[in-house]
Write a structure and sequence with these properties.
alpha+beta, three-stranded antiparallel β-sheet
Length: 221
Amino acid sequence: MSKDPDSWRDSPKVRAWEESLLTAGCSLESVEPLKILDKRSGDLLFALIEAKGRDPEGKPLLPYALIRGPACVVVPVCRNQGTGERRFLMIRQRRIGHGHMSLEFPAGMLDSDLKDPAGVAVRELEEETGLTVKPSQLRPLWNSALFSSPGLSDESIYFFTAEIETKEKVWETLEGKSAGHADEGEYITTTLKTYAEASLELNSIQPLMGFMLYHLHFGEL
């Protein structure tokens, strides 16, 4: 049975984007798909759309939008129970946007779980590092999701942190540990870093924003 070509409009991501515009007082006259990319499951991954709409003052909105949906980032801090050392738990993976290895914090898209950013953050942390925390252990680093590039994309990011007590044997495994889902193109290794060490490798805004929000929240790095 062929998929309904208009089913992308029913995606939670698209519905949330439309609701956000209407809540802000904007109007939408039409929305046309330019390119729709689905996940293997059939759920929407990205949608590049052309929209005709106006802001609350009646001025036309820019017509193109990339619908990605919200995401979450976790800034995990591990504490070695044996030595008392504290380090940020980070991941390395190669990114197609620039081809280089990227030092990042565990992160992921919310997809259909738009109402449960903390639950997604817990899942992404486990998938990308092997460490398990409860949602109650997460602390938000900002009081709402932050938009990464609102001139084009609806992507917003929830930033969390979690303090994780680790036994010395577990601590030792976190340097160079393989993680992620190879069948989904995720080839990840974990690493423990101080901010000073990590700052020498950073090449994207996501981890730098994580560090800065952590510093604003706790007054330390």
